Structure formats: structure tokens, C-alpha cells
Amino acid sequence: MNLDEAIRLRDPTRLPSRRDEDWRWTDLRGLLRTLPEPSQPLPTDAIGPGPFDGLPGEIVIVANGSGPEEICIGEGEARTLVLRHISRGDGAHTARLRIDVRPSARLTLLESHEGGGAGLSLLGVDLTLGADAACERLVLSDLDPDAVAVVELDATLAARAGLSQTLLTTGARRQRFETRVRHPGQGAQVRLDGVYVLRERRHADLTSSVRHEGPGGRTDQLARGMVDDQARAVFQGRIIVQEGADGTDARMAHNALILSDRAEVDARPELEIYADDVACAHGATVGALDDEVLFYMRQRGLPEGEARSLLVASFLGEVIDRVGSPEAAERMRSWLQARIGASD
Length: 344
Fold this sequence. Notes:
By secondary structure, the protein is mainly beta. About 15% of the residues lie in helices and about 45% in strands. Strands 1-3-5-7-9-11-13-15-17 form a nine-stranded parallel beta sheet, covered by helices on one side.
């Protein structure tokens, strides 16, 4: 199975399928019997504003697979990049971007996934963080309901590096965010958070794997979501603590709200521990809104739709409370509120 080769060669037999354990809930081979023609070039002067417009930062555009291949943040440098991944039309394309954050550098990555049309896309990001470097990756994804999109992040950290990630998505026909982290321990810290708001027949898959390879590292993961109508959410989180990674502190939680009898949430949190003297925990909950709280709010004059929106916003907003950049957090909160209230 190789998604990049499948798209480039237009070979559906190379697509991941339910026979691949990590893809059993996001089966692309069963969905796509034939693959689209390559996407047409998209002139950047035809692209409108993005969701992070107005915030400071250097804009980097990947349009229908065309964009830069490598970005370097120099030692001790602090930069903000506004990365816009834009897919238009019904074609297929791939892109891969390498980001090298040198020792003691700081990167804020404001990333958006925007698109119209029933296209197929793959974006891969290879992120390397040097010693004492830090990266905060903030992602907003709002795609066409007929799109099929996969976004991969492969991150490698050095000692005392820090990676923080917050994903917000409304899904697509099929969408998958996959994050793979090589964690050195040695004082490095990782935070992987996500929020999904899914309606109609949209699908979102948040999959991650963090491999602790040395002692004294920390990973903290919080995912929350809401599914309505016939939407489907997938959460797969795996934390691996290898032999010798003593003193690891790793925590993972996934909590979801189901607002329809026809909606579905599939959750698989996993811990694999091969070391001693660790503090690791994981858990997942799936439930509905509290009827008693809804009744209480309606008794005080709030319409049912508004009461439901407020409860959902409070539940999901705790993830955004963990974002480090106040300006970006406010932008993300407004973006999320608009999606929560879309059908109320």
C-alpha cells in the first residue's frame, strides 16, 4: 500500500483498504474504483483570502500540488508561516514539504486546507526539530463534501524540543490526518490535540503514533468531536514507550458527542509500554448531550438550538484553550463557533 504511488500511477490497487489494520475505518480502495486524472495547475493569483488572513506571517501556498519543497528556520530564529494547502477541481495531486527547524528556533505554523470539487489529494509534511527548538502547528480544514484528502505529518524531535499541534476539521467524503512522531525523550514534549465537527455524510479520521525512544519525555493528547446526521469520525491514537524510555509521562484522551442515531464514532486509543517507571494513561468516551442540562437552559429562556450550540462549543472549546498563540486561538474559536452553529 502506497498512497503517493497510487495517485501518481493512477493505480487503485495501491490504495489503502480495510485489509490494512490502520485504515479499516477509512477504506479508500473500496471507495475509489478508478483514480482521477492529474489536477490542472492552479494560478495563485486566482486564490482568495484564507482563514488565517490578517495574522502576521509569511504566506506559503501549495496549490493543486504545486509549491515549495523545503523550508528552513535558522538557528535561534523565530518565524510564523501561513501554509495554505488549496485543492480545486476534480483531479488528483500530491505534494511533500520538508520543514527544518534548527536548534533553539521557534516556528508557528498556521495551516489551512481549503478546496472545492471532488478531488483526491495527499499532502506530506516532514518536520525536523533541533535541540531546544519548538513548533506550534495550528490547522483549520474546511473541504468540499465530495473531496478525498489525506494529510501526513512525520516529525522527528531532538532533545528538549517541543511540538504542539491543534487540528480543527469539518471532514470531507473521506479525510484523514495522520501524525507520526519520533520522540527522543530527554526533556522533549509533544502535545497532539484535535477537534472535529461533522455533519451530513462527512468523514474525518484523526490517526497518530508517538514513539518514545529515550527517557524523560512527555506526550499529552486530547481529541474531542461532534458528529451529527450520518457523519462518521475515527480516532486512532497509539503511544509506544520503547525499552529504555524510563520516566516517560504519556496521556491520551478522546471524547465525542453523538447527536444523531445514524452517526458513528470509532475510537481506538492504544498504549504499548516496554519500559519501567512510566506514568501512562489513556481513555475514550462517546455520549450524547446531557438532557438535564439542556432542560435547565431551556427553562431559562434559551431556544433549544442555541442551548445545544452553547453546550457543544463549551465541550469542544477546551481544546482551543490549550493553544499557545492568543491571536490564533481567537481566530480558531470564531471559526469553530461558525461551524457549530451552521445548522442550528
